[in-house]
Amino acid sequence: MNFESFNFPTEIMQAISDCGYKTMTPVQQKAIPVIRRGNDVIASAQTGTGKTAAFALPILHKMANKPVTTAAANTRALVLAPTRELASQVADNIKAYSKYLNYSVISIYGGTKVAPQAEKLRAGVDIVVATPGRLLEHLIAGSLSLSNIEFLVLDEADRMLDMGFSTDIQKILQATNKQKQSMLFSATFSSAVNRLANEMMNKPQVVSVDKQNTTADTISQVVYPVEQRRKRELLSELIGKKNWKQVLVFSATREDADRLNKELNLDGIPSKVVHGDKNQGNRRRALREFMEGKIKVLVSTEIAARGLDIQDLEYVVNYDLPFLAEDYVHRIGRTGRAGKSGVAISLVSREEERTLKDIEKLIGQKIRRIEVPGYEVSNRDLLLKQLQKRRSFAKNKQRTDNVREQIVAEKSMSGRRVKLNATNKAKKLK
């Protein structure tokens, strides 16, 4: 199905053409008609499937059909996103879709100065894309009112809840009017996401493209079993021998990400790192160099990678498996986007096998394993037996040592008794 079939205004169609869009993705085909009818929507679709256009295009269409001058310190549409990267990306996309409609669009998030954002908000903005924490700051300060809002979108709602934004979102919802149209987009659905949807929506229509919590068919998934201490060595070998050009690597912590980035560069593999301790300028510079091919590897933590839109990214590597199985779906969704193929590689240690089982249960499939010669992981059962033998040996040795010490002690005590008796006899003789 193509975009002409929905009879968008000429201004929107021209913008769609400028973006190079030709045919609709499945989520766009299903969500756009429902949103245009005015229904609240719960949409389940994987990242990289065109979700932004799925909600932005019908919202822009409805705004164009009902011209309104946005009042000072007000907005017509609000999009909430979990991270600054995603907020910036969504705002850029909406600007591209609305460039012939002359709407004002702003992204607001933490890590930047509040005053310039507040000045723009007080003037009135047609569409605001924001992270929950920074938006709440502006609501409290009076820089923005949501009393006249017409459209509310929660993008990647599951991630916002995982990041602890539940209370902020509740406060933001309380500041909105009840007549708004609400849309919730999420790649995975938990009980918390379902509760949020029930609280904020009125008879929502469910739009589901894929089975919930599944991965895209365009992504080839592979597991490499490896000892934790040899992961970096294996990663460097895979990148070098297989000549991977553009690899996004997920690490568990900021410290681990910094260490891995340093070691990869020492191995001769150009790499940069992005995480919460890096300022926005450094993160953007690293991403730009990665997309331009100046570096081969971009090492990232979970939060920093949220919202990264890297076109034609072929490889995603889980250097460490995520703590939550649902995050695996988000991570590997950075590749295989918009129908293109991608590869998701997970380096899995013995300690992560249980997490891997949780992931396989969630996505409903067994992930193919590849063992690299020289990096084999010792059999867990055999290791347990060996450990039991060592413990048994240690116990026996300890028991033997205790007996030996006891004998020595008894001999020593006996010797002291003999010596004492001899001394006493000598005293009596005197």
Automatic annotation (TrEMBL):
SMART domains in the record: DEXDc, HELICc
Enzyme class: hydrolase
Gene Ontology CC, one term: cytosol
Domain Helicase ATP-binding: 32-207
Catalytic activity line of the entry: ATP + H2O = ADP + phosphate + H(+)
EC number(s) stated in the UniProt entry for this protein: 3.6.4.13
Entry's family note: Belongs to the DEAD box helicase family.
Protein name: DEAD-box ATP-dependent RNA helicase RhpA
Upper taxonomic lineage: Bacteria, Pseudomonadati, Pseudomonadota, Gammaproteobacteria, Alteromonadales
